[in-house]
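Q: Start with the shorter request: fold the first protein.
A: Done. Sequence, then structure:
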Amino acid sequence: MGAACDHDHGTTGLAEGEAVRALDAAEAACAAEGERMTAPRRRVLDLLLRAGEPMKAYDLIARFGQDGQAAKPPTVYRALEFLERRGLAHRIASISAYVACSHGGADDHAAAFLICDCCGAAQEIAAPLGDGLRRAAEGAGYVIDRTTIEAHGRCPDCRLPA
């Protein structure tokens, strides 16, 4: 991520009630498809939802234990893989970090992120090329499993003159 900002940014993570509702909805969606939202998966998703910003895997590992104990890395990486596969989280490759999906786990959408190089914030937006890219791929006989578009720049707060 970029250099630390010298200005404040509001927190964008979900509050307690919103996070619980999002976790319950994710658990119900998983159950409807015959998948289990295990305690480690739920904990990792909870951390992502409440952070409201991209989190690196090792930050998740450090914060995973509610009693101050870090998790074993394979536990968190397996949870992240599951959450990505289910469309509940996205990996932002250019900054090696993860975010909760703002589309509520709609696994059939193309994710696009606006990433601030100053403060490191990331905002998920509708991918402008999602459907067109999918149609072009189908025309070429290709099936796309997932699409992630990453755009770097400065968020509105970081663009403001100091």
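Q: Next, the second protein, separately.
A: Sequence, then structure:
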Amino acid sequence: MLPDPAQEERARALGREIRCMVCQNQSIEDSEASLARDLRLIVRERIAAGDSDAGVIEFLHARYGDFVLLKPPFAWSTAALWATPLIAVLGGLGLIVGLRRRAAATPPPAPLTEDERKRLAALGLPPQDGSRA
């Protein structure tokens, strides 16, 4: 922990923006992995040395790439990452609309003929179209 409470709060805020590369879905502030502990120490060392928040992020980004950021910047290399949720939602909505249209366009089944009703009655089965034999 840093002796200055303001610097410690900055370090914790920055730690919530940096991904633990072992846990992958946790920030370094939430992770108990040894790599996360090492990254927390680096963040605090950089802040104690006088780096700005952007300077600390740039330092880690230069070392570890976009993956170290919980919110990677938008770039052509990350466009698929950012577009995937939108594509999934639009695809799901398209599927729902398509299935509803198909269900609405499907004609009801033709009623049973008299011969079909007799065969069902001979088998001891009730009529399948809702009519009484």
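Q: Describe the second briefly.
A: Residues 79-105 form the longest helix (27 residues). The mean pLDDT is 86.
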